[in-house]
């Protein structure tokens, strides 16, 4: 068996079952030995190299036809010299000086196949520590060099590389000596509207911007992108799925569609679409996938772990108890000494959708922390978020100013000029925490776009679904994005749970110093906390271990005590909270203690809501 670093498309096709068995071994040694494209600098990318790419499926391109196998003839003797594999390549392989692709009698030796490209972006909102950990653990796995620079720096945007128009121009390739690659051409699909990024027919065409091509959901935090080409199981993947793909890299400069614009004078309307579907490979490389995995989380501490630690493991009850205690104390101090608010925030941090039934979802736990003291704003909300991003692999802070609400695109839209799905702020990977700072909202008017933005956020909170705008119709896609809303009063957005903070007066004055001290205090324990939160969020949890008669009796008692105001929705909320109390304690199943703790928390929360409720003015 050849070392994985020496695999070629031809070798893989001939030994597919053996190679896949080696890739999917339980210990993952071979898989992890493959260099991670996310951490490689553009100048170190090698065409044909076997690499991995980790990210979220942001868009799907139309299926394309390609030459799966074809004959190569000698120009002199016109005899077939070999049959060439066309899988896992973008280019035809032959020596242009002495050979040609067989087109005799329509090319009887040609076999066509179909493949489809997924536009995959690095995890939107991935936090600095997670990026840094990926780099440290994926340095020289397969000879790839890591990218230098700040973790938050956008992807370097190289100058556009134009393709050469001389077919005899020499090109570097890993094929045998005197063998070169030639681009596989296919006609572009007709565009339905004129390109907005392109000038009129009489002017020189303008290339699409790098920002538009990278298409990051969070525009001020751009990452990398990759076109992952699928040859099998094409229908198994959906938008927003987090994947890790292994495949052969394709970065030949001739793949840049911008270089073809000069040849497309008769098809001016198609130029933008051609550029969008054939971006510069130096900016957006291609990866011809031989194996793709769905990832259940985005925490690199667990994804890249070669020697798994028990620290933070859901089965280590002693370690879990210590971690929960430390984390709860930290959150309490950073929430002005409010232990109840800390309980709810901890539950929010391990929440996720665990069940879907038709259009309904179960498990989401949008939390509205209200009654934030005005004298600590706006610094406090940003400081609290900075603490949370230390704990979470992916998150995003969004100040809900009028300008942001009226101008930011929240939901993805289909651009039919380029046949590209332009992303929106809410197109996030599962378990990416979205923190909405409503304390930044000032008096003013929400325009039509702002009102639509509120609708999108409300729909995401209530149903964990997002409507994608395809101009002539809308499609709903599932999401799993925990939303935390910070506000002074009750939020204008819906929530699963509103918790008014009851601050300690002394804590208000010292909150800046408290958060700084908390960050310093938790630093040595961060990795354990990060592992615990992720394992708690994704682990299975048995809710059938609680005696149903206990639930029935308590529900009757609650309805009697509230004069019938407690509904089935309230019971569902209590069940979700009890589940999260159990998960945040590191337990695998629901116990009576978790149920009683959830009841106590809900009673305290309801008391607070009554306390802050505006008195009804009688006529």
Automatic annotation (TrEMBL):
Its main location: nucleus. GO terms for biological process: DNA-templated DNA replication. Residues 177-189 have a biased composition (Basic and acidic residues). One of its GO terms (molecular function) is chromatin binding. Residues 125-199 are annotated as: Disordered. It comes from the Eukaryota. Keywords: Nucleus. Residues 190-199 have a biased composition (Polar residues). It is found in: Nucleus. Belongs to the MCMBP family. This is Mini-chromosome maintenance complex-binding protein. It comes from Anopheles darlingi (Mosquito).
